Amino acid sequence: MSIWRFDENRTDFVLVPPADMEADPEGCYIIQRGDMLMVRDGGHEWPMPERLNIAGVMFDREQFEGTHLLSLREEMERDGRWARAQLQACEQSEIKLPLELPIWVTKRSLDGAVEQTPPNLITRLKRWMRS
User: Fold this and answer.
1) pLDDT tens across 109-126, in order?
2) Pairing between β-strand 57-60 and β-strand 12-16 as defined by DSSP bridges
3) Does residue 117 form part of some domain?
4) Distance between CA atoms of 37 and 46, rounded to whole angstroms?
5) Which of 6, 8, 111, 114 is the most exposed place for a label (fewest CB within 10 A)?
6) Torsion-angle region of 87 (φ positive above 0: left; ψ -120 to 50: alpha; else: beta)
7) In this structure, is residue 10 part of a structural domain?
């Protein structure tokens, strides 16, 4: 059995011995019993969700299962493969990605019609050629 206690000063979970949980039963803990992960807060226990928000900080279930062994690059590659598969599935049917587009992708800076103008680089090149 492994037990992690939420440390408010570090805003992270730290591994603690079972005696610490018995001494402070009202704290926030993640308890691993075999392959079961439980959240204990205020003396009440419930199954660990996929993501847990504690004090505004998100914690993934993978962090406590011991399966979070990928490097950042490998994790990004895995997520990229998943996103690519979702996009291919979207082209074949009407499956939507679970992610919303960021506001800077959906929001336009101008409300009126946009005039087509040459890019700034072309304008600079024309001025350079004239001089």
Assistant:
1) 555 554 555 566 677 777
2) unpaired
3) no
4) 9
5) 111
6) alpha
7) yes
Residues contacting 108, CB < 8 A, separation 6+: none
* Cα separation, 59 vs 13, whole angstroms: 9
What predicted TM-score, i.e. pTM, was given to this entire model?
A: 0.48
- Is residue 59 in some structural domain? yes
Q: What beta strand segments (E) does 17-103 contain?
A: 28-33, 36-41, 44-47, 51-54, 57-60
Q: What is the pLDDT of residue 114?
A: 47
Contact 78, 70 (CB under 8 A): yes
Residues contacting residue 59 through CB under 8 Å, at least 6 positions apart: 13, 30, 51, 52, 53
Residue 91 forms part of a structural domain: no
Successive 10-residue mean pLDDT values, the chain, 131 residues:
84 86 87 86 87 84 68 79 80 58 51 56 75 70
* Backbone phi, psi, residue 29, to 5°: -135, 155
Q: How many domains does the chain have?
A: 1
Residue range(s) defining the domain that contains residue 9: 2-65
